[in-house]
Amino acid sequence: MKLPRLFKIWIMVASRVAQTQILNSIGGVFFLIGKVARFLLYYVFIYSLFSKVNSLSGYSGEQVMMFFLVFNLIDIITQAVFRGVYHFRGLVVNGNFDMELLKPLPSYFRPIFGWTDIMDIFISIPLSIFFIIYSSNSGIVDGGNAFIFILMMFNSILLAFSFHLMVCAMCIITTEVDNLIMIYRDLTNMGRFSTDIYPTIIRTIVTFVVPVTILFTIPSKAILGLLTINNLIISFVVTIVYFILSIKLWRYGLKRYSSASS
Q: How far apart are CA 170 and CA 94, in angstroms?
């Protein structure tokens, strides 16, 4: 199925999910307040930190703030679009995934894109505006790096998709998803700041095993003009490897799937 067709179907599914979320408006309001409060508290933390010190692992306060903004931007986008993973276990346990496999859609569409968090999308709009304003006024961003930054953003989203697909595959095999996705959430929090602040062994793990560096630090370095050719190549290679492994694991999981009629 062609991408424009899939995008149209995703918009339709997302609009229906949005209607469900809007019906529970009180919960949505508190969710938004919590998200904004958390962001502001981290902003205050960074501001307070750099009122006492001049740099963090060689990065200035403005650069650290850019790492933080890019982290939040990528994290909110991926959480909004790939939220279906959190609801996938129910489909597997109650057997409704059988019906999804009968539809003329890619088998991973419902598990990955079946639930879009409209609240996160709402938050991403003012965050993107703030990011653009900060990038323009901070004096640390070179406009010539915008293309590389966008490219690395897409690379990060593809990598996040691959990891979420792996989690869905493990859900089919083990009927467990919550623990894995929470581990992913905890590990990605290490990317709020540049992973250069960690010891060498930790940097290796968060680059090649759980690629937090590729997800968050590399795009931040791209917008700051700090990205090297080696880092660029490593990012693409790691993402391609993860994508291939996720597809293979997903296909393996489908072969192991026991439908409700089995």
A: 17
